[in-house]
């Protein structure tokens, strides 16, 4: 199951699990759309491809909440 990290690792933008606009690599490193574009859709941490992160809503989100651990080092 995806960790659903709550923020962009590059700029700190909030990325709620129930909203679009997040991009992840195979290690679940997470970036906002603007940062993913600036990185040419390559993860700044591992060099992997950044793809749209699916959303998690309703009952699925309630029973499997998103992570609260922040990765932005700002």
Structural write-up:
- This protein has two helices and three strands.
- The protein starts with 21 loop residues before the first strand and ends in an 11-residue tail after the last helix.
- It is of the alpha+beta class and 74 residues long.
- The protein has one domain: Herpes Virus-1, CATH 3.30.40.
- A hairpin with a 5-residue loop joins β1 and β2.
- The model has no long low-confidence stretch (mean pLDDT 96).
- 26% of the residues are buried.
- Strands 2-1-3 form a three-stranded antiparallel beta sheet.
- It comes from Sphingobium fluviale.
- This is DUF1272 domain-containing protein.
Give keywords.
74 residues; alpha+beta; Herpes Virus-1; three-stranded antiparallel β-sheet; 2 helices; 3 strands; 11% strand; DUF1272; DUF1272 domain-containing protein
Strand and helix order: EEHEH
Main CATH class? Alpha Beta
Question: How many distinct domains?
Answer: 1
What amount of the residues lies in strands?
5-15%
* Outline: globular
Main sheet specs = 3 strands, antiparallel
Q: Percent range for helical residues?
A: 10-25%
**Distance, first to last CA:** 27 Å
CATH architecture: 2-Layer Sandwich
CATH fold description? Herpes Virus-1
Number of strands: 3
Mean pLDDT: 96
Low-confidence runs = none
Rg for CA atoms: 12 Å
InterPro entries: DUF1272
Pfam families: DUF1272
Protein name: DUF1272 domain-containing protein
Give me the secondary-structure topology.
Blueprint: E1 22-24, E2 30-32, H1 33-38, E3 51-52, H2 58-63
Antiparallel strand pairs: 1-2, 1-3
In short:
With 74 residues, the chain is an alpha+beta fold. The chain has helices spanning 33-38, 58-63, and strands at residues 22-24, 30-32, 51-52. Pfam families: DUF1272.
